Amino acid sequence: FSPAASFGVRSSALNMAETATETKAFAKLPATVKPGVVTGKALTDLLDNAKAQGYAIPGVNIVGSNSINACMEAAAKYGGPIMVTFSKGGGQFICGKSVDNKNDQASIAGTIAGAKHVHEVAKLYGVPVVLHTDHCQKAWLPWIDGLLTASEEHFAKTGEPLFSSHMLDLSEEPLEENIAICKSYLEKFAKVGILLEFELGVTGGEEDGVDNSDVDSSRLYTQPEEVYYAYEQLSQVPGGAFTCAASFGNVHGVYAPGNVDLQPIILYNSQKYIQEKLGCEDDKPMKFVFHGGSGSSVEDIQYAIGAGVVKMNIDTDTQWAFWDGVRGYEAKYHDYLQGQIGNPEGPDKPNKKYYDPRLMLRAGEEAMAARLVKAAEDLKCVNVLN
Ligand SMILES: O=C(CO)COP(=O)(O)O
Ligand SMILES: O=C[C@H](O)COP(=O)(O)O
Ligand SMILES: [Zn+2]
Ligand SMILES: [Zn+2]
């Protein structure tokens, strides 16, 4: 099974250029996966490896260079890959909230700026980084169109797209329309080696400002027939690579115990159904994505990995971690942070060394990175590089 067989096709001139500036390969990962941004065939190789070895990669929502760097710092610590994920709102935030976002211009510019930051620095962290975008409903497709144009330009220059993968979340639309739009985008993505993540069913809680807390609970649980329909349709795209965000009761956010009823068995049932329909050897033909990872139990997470989950999204818990780091900093240095001058050491003592924003932001980064190391442990994504 190799839906992306044609990814990574490059001109021989580009191949020669790559040999000249050779980057070291990782011992435990396929040779195509190198430090820096991972796209095309290298990405499908990485996900195949995750599926075969039984680990999943953290997909982390970021909002700027602090959270992006915390992701890469964590990946270097736990010794595994990371997926840096831009939401439309996160991209807009990187551009700056004061900028008019007409026609998604700020979201597009900010997401590209964030991606370029990663392209520039990722190799210095020595880890494979997947550049991904999060939930995109139908009305937001112009955001993805802008990013696709940037990837096409990047591909023309370098033979690789700017972004590794995009999620299209058309689960508000009827299944046939959802998959038809996904298919038309996958045709464009495949030409430049971008992977598609599509969604079936609804992620509960809040999803990019859409409040799904009242949806009929049956919509929170995807049916195996829907997964097979999507698989069968999207497999028709030459060179297309895709993952599926199926709903098994996932909810964005963290709630009091008893409010979320995860049923990852749905993923097993879907795999079994597809395998029977296809008559294939692979007992996990679909690569699944676990949304709403925050607050999930290690048991549910590892069960889902056994059913073919290769990525888990985490946002709320890393938001909390970043804040908790800042909060801890403020608590520790409270008496040095009440004015520019004057602290417990004397009324004339300057406090510049305490209120420099880098100090509290660094505390946030450290706490976020520590939370991501824990996530990677839960996902069995530790020490998979060498
Ligand atoms: O699914 C997510 C982003 O798409 C993250 O969900 P959580 O905020 O629940 O971790
Ligand atoms: O599910 C997580 C969302 O994609 C994050 O969206 P947001 O940045 O608009 O909060
Ligand atoms: Zn959705
Ligand atoms: Zn999500």
TrEMBL record:
PROSITE patterns: ALDOLASE_CLASS_II_1, ALDOLASE_CLASS_II_2
Molecular function in Gene Ontology: fructose-bisphosphate aldolase activity; metal ion binding
Keyword annotations: Glycolysis, Lyase, Metal-binding, Signal, Zinc
Catalytic activity, EC: 4.1.2.13
Cofactor(s) named in the record: Zn(2+)
A UniProt-annotated Pfam family: F_bP_aldolase
NCBIfam families attached to this UniProt entry: cbbA, FruBisAldo_II_A, PRK09197.1
Protein name: fructose-bisphosphate aldolase
